[in-house]
Amino acid sequence: MFVLQACVSRGRTPIGVLNIWRESFSILNKEKRADLMKHEYFYRMPTARGVNTEFDYLEIGNCELSGWRQAAVHSVAGKEHRIHHTHIHHNQRKGLGYGISHGKAFSLIEYNLFEWNRHSIAGSGSTPSGYIARHNLELGESLSHNFDMHGGRDRKDGTNIVGSRIEIYNNTFLDRGRAIGIRGGPDEYVRICGNWFMKHQAPCFALIIRWPPASSVELGDNLYGTNTLTVQ
To answer: How far is CA 126 from each of CA 76, 165, 181, rounded to the nearest angstrom?
Structure first.
């Protein structure tokens, strides 16, 4: 077990990210990229991770993690990771920029404060993998959506799989944009329940995206709005 407690970890804010994105995807730079595909070229640009693990039982608590170009916490692999009571903010980069990201890993993510991340929680969707996100406060200002899991379309592996199992419950979202993106169907289940979406009046595609829709993604007992509360 590796335990990280009561620390501050700050990366360097990336400079010229939009220029790098244009260089990677503009037709004007095709010759400069040589034989590299657009995304392949982009992801060869320098990145940085705050904490990186391939082993089981990582614990991070009572820390502040910010300014990391790829991810503040990246679990390449491993199980029973726990990230709790931590302020994770300003980890943003177009195409990257995650608070907590997963490869083939499982995490419990609870009692954290998230803000200004591209995705506060993300995952490749490769199996086996998944996370439980509960009792977190998401302040928002995301470049995309807050909690995420990639699907086969993103990996281009010919599947519709978004990992093994995901539970998102008892979280509060203050972002006006999309809160959750589950980009396919899991091997086991996805449960999204008991959350409070304060800036949205009802469930909709603009709030929770299932891409494409999957019957194994369960929604229920979530709270919407502030003045006139709706439970669905």
So the answer is: 11, 11, 16
Q: For the residues of the chain, what is the DSSP string, one character each?
A: -EEEES-EEE-PPPSSHHHHHHHHH-GGGHHHHTT--HHHHHTTS---EEEEE-SS-EEEES-EEE--SSEEEEEEEEEEEEEES-EEEEE-BTTB-EEEEEEEEEEEEES-EEEEESEEEEE--PSS-EEEEES-EE----SS-SEEE--HHHHTSS--B--SEEEEES-EE--SS--EEE-SB-SSEEEEES-EETT-SS--TTTEEESS--TTEEEES-EE-SSS-EE-
pLDDT digits (tens, 9 = 90+) for 61-87: 999 999 887 899 999 999 999 999 999
* pLDDT > 80? residue 177: yes
Pairing of strands 223-224, 230-231: antiparallel
Q: Fill in the amino acid letter for 206.
A: A
Please count the other Cβ atoms lying within 10 Å of the Cβ belonging to residue 145. 22
Left if phi > 0, otherwise alpha if psi is -120 to 50, otherwise beta: which for 25? alpha
Give the distance, in angstroms, between the CA of residue 218 and the centroid of all CA atoms in the same chain.
19
pTM, two decimal places: 0.82
